[in-house]
Task: inverse folding
């Protein structure tokens, strides 16, 4: 078997990391107060989203939430791998960004802003407000309560990212629906 | 024990080592090498082909299917890599390697086309079984043979069952989302 040293080093390190994570999770997270709290946050935001979402526009808003979830997962995991930040409490021990508060809140809030703000102008104001609340109120609170740890990161670094993400995803969903409309017109439906 | 006091500090150190091992390996053995270009070409070609085959009139619906499948497969892929079930020995990009893994591209794109072409549960299920078979018994062994993918604690049969389950569950979700929207539109009009 050609198990070259570089790949097997990475595999061994991954093994150790996963082992440490699961150990820590079993001892300090699972069934502790913070663990139930996180589950509560997830359940609560899912419920609020289901209540507020416009059912007649569900496919469009879900597409928006799905795209937001993908981008959030990617950025979260990259930041974690680059040790920019860390989530000290996890609902499940593996793939930590999957159960981070980010994933419970960002797709829900972004997609609701998308649903309520039908023009670019109102959308941008709402996004600005949301990014401010996230960076300068919510994240410090998460750090204070030890759900989130900044390693090589500052709160205001996230600010332009939150805004760019929101604009990009809204543009993308609008574009997708515009392509569909144009193609329908072409076929004369 | 030292580990239990500063468990996350140990995790962060190992994460750092793991990321730098990924990075170093990528810089020395992957990037701009023949296999890297091959992978990049395969990526581009697949996306172009998918875009050509995509029915633009139904793009919001098919994309919703793609996005949901991507979220699920990305999570499964990353969890599998963290649990050392499989490993990707060559990366397009060294940070969060899983998102540039070829399996993550193929599964959502192939299944979303099946979703587009087969509108009934019966035809879709047969298509999903055939696609899962092709992916797990032809495509994945070929990838493993060319060393783009290594199974550590995994077998192709597991992939087969997993893909079928994911395909059916996501189709159920998309159908449900659209029927909720239809109901809501009927009630409001």
Result:
């Amino acid at each position: 078997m050609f198990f070259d040293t570089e790949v097997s080093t990475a595999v061994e390190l991954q093994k150790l990391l996963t082992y440490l994570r699961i150990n820590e999770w079993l001892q300090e997270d699972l069934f502790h107060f913070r663990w139930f709290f996180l589950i509560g946050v997830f359940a609560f935001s899912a419920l609020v989203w289901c209540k507020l979402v416009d059912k007649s526009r569900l496919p469009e808003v879900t597409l928006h939430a799905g795209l937001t979830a993908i981008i959030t997962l990617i950025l979260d995991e990259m930041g974690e791998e680059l040790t920019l930040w860390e989530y000290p409490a996890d609902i499940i021990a593996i793939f930590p960004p999957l159960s981070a508060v980010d994933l419970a809140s960002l797709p829900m809030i972004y997609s609701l802003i998308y649903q309520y703000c039908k023009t670019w102008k109102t959308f941008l104001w709402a996004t600005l407000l949301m990014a401010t609340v996230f960076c300068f109120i919510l994240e410090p609170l998460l750090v204070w309560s030890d759900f989130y740890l900044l390693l090589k990161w500052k709160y205001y670094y996230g600010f332009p990212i939150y805004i760019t993400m929101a604009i990009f995803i809204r543009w993308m969903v609008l574009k997708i629906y515009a392509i569909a409309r144009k193609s329908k017109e072409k076929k004369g439906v | 024990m030292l580990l239990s006091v500063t468990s996350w500090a140990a995790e962060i150190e190992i994460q750092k080592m793991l990321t730098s091992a990924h990075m170093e390996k990528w810089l020395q053995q992957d990037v701009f090498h023949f296999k890297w270009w091959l992978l990049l070409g395969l990526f581009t070609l697949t996306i172009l082909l998918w875009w050509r085959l995509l029915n633009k009139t139904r793009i919001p619906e098919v994309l919703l299917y793609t996005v949901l499948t991507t979220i699920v497969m990305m999570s499964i892929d990353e969890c599998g890599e963290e649990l050392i079930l499989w490993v990707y020995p060559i990366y397009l990009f060294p940070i969060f390697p899983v998102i540039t893994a070829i399996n993550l591209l193929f599964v959502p794109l192939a299944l979303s086309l099946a979703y587009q072409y087969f509108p009934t549960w019966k035809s879709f299920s047969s298509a999903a079984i055939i696609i899962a078979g092709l992916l797990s018994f032809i495509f994945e062994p070929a990838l493993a043979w060319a060393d783009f993918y290594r199974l550590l604690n995994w077998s192709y049969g597991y992939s087969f069952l997993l893909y079928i389950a994911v395909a059916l569950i996501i189709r159920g979700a998309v159908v449900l989302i659209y029927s909720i929207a239809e109901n809501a539109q009927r009630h409001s009009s």
Observations:
- Chain A is about 75% helix and 0% strand.
- The helical segments of chain A are 5-29, 33-52, 58-81, 101-116, 120-144, 155-187.
- The first helix of chain A runs from residue 5 to 29.
- The longest strand of chain A covers residues 85-86.
